[in-house]
């Protein structure tokens, strides 16, 4: 059975109460990227960065997966071929919805040692002076990919896109690379492409088909079509 590859962005979690980043009133309308989401920001004011991610982690901890998350979990379990879900999101709502995903931008649920690379479950509130459980260095940082850093798992993602037969983008703005370029890679490999988004994105013209509306309506309906 043909492989399916799915890319998800902030739009799939918006209906679970997780704010998107680029929409009016979104996170980047309230915070300056340069203050909380770059390596330079962390070097300049780590306390502010920790406060920001502790706030985001607390928000995520109380969120529940919505119908779109559950539908993708169902698809992954019922489709006889591989279903790879790549997410730009750092929440754990896909996992709560029953899916296994590739987190290309990291996760709120883990902490990272900048000294040795060790990862461990993040406490509810992380602190600048938390020691790494492995090397004991006080080099704790959020396990998220900041602007200017290389996303995780890019080699594996490239291999997946080369082999996919269907590429589906869900809830993404099409503004952030390299994820915004995945549709081009999938098309070059001969895949069919589909966009499911609240409204047209910056890359809508690149897709064979686009459907627009709430993720909690579009995604379950599409999954039912696929598994029927």
TrEMBL record:
GO terms for cellular component: cytoplasm. The keyword Cytoplasm applies. Signal peptide: none annotated. Zn(2+) binds at residues 113, 116, 132, 135. Its cofactor is Zn(2+). NAD(+) binds at residues 9-28, 88-91, 171-173, 197-199, 215. The active site is at 105 (proton acceptor). InterPro entries: DHS-like_NAD/FAD-binding_dom, NAD-dep_sirtuin_deacylases, Sirtuin, Sirtuin_cat_small_dom_sf, Sirtuin_class_III, Ssirtuin_cat_dom. Gene3D superfamilies: SIR2/SIRT2 'Small Domain (3.30.1600.10), TPP-binding domain (3.40.50.1220). Keywords: Cytoplasm, Metal-binding, NAD, Transferase, Zinc. Residues 1-228 form the Deacetylase sirtuin-type domain. Substrate binds at residues 53, 56. It comes from the Bacteria. It catalyses: N(6)-succinyl-L-lysyl-[protein] + NAD(+) + H2O = 2''-O-succinyl-ADP-D-ribose + nicotinamide + L-lysyl-[protein]; N(6)-acetyl-L-lysyl-[protein] + NAD(+) + H2O = 2''-O-acetyl-ADP-D-ribose + nicotinamide + L-lysyl-[protein]. It is found in: Cytoplasm. CDD domains: SIRT5_Af1_CobB (cd01412). Its EC number is 2.3.1.286. Binds 1 zinc ion per subunit. It is an enzyme of class 2 (transferase). GO terms for molecular function: histone deacetylase activity, NAD-dependent; NAD+ binding; protein-malonyllysine demalonylase activity; protein-succinyllysine desuccinylase activity; zinc ion binding. The keyword Zinc applies. Belongs to the sirtuin family. Class III subfamily. NAD-dependent lysine deacetylase and desuccinylase that specifically removes acetyl and succinyl groups on target proteins. Modulates the activities of several proteins which are inactive in their acylated form. 2 residues (Tyr-53 and Arg-56) present in a large hydrophobic pocket are probably involved in substrate specificity. They are important for desuccinylation activity, but dispensable for deacetylation activity. This is NAD-dependent protein deacylase. It comes from Vannielia litorea.
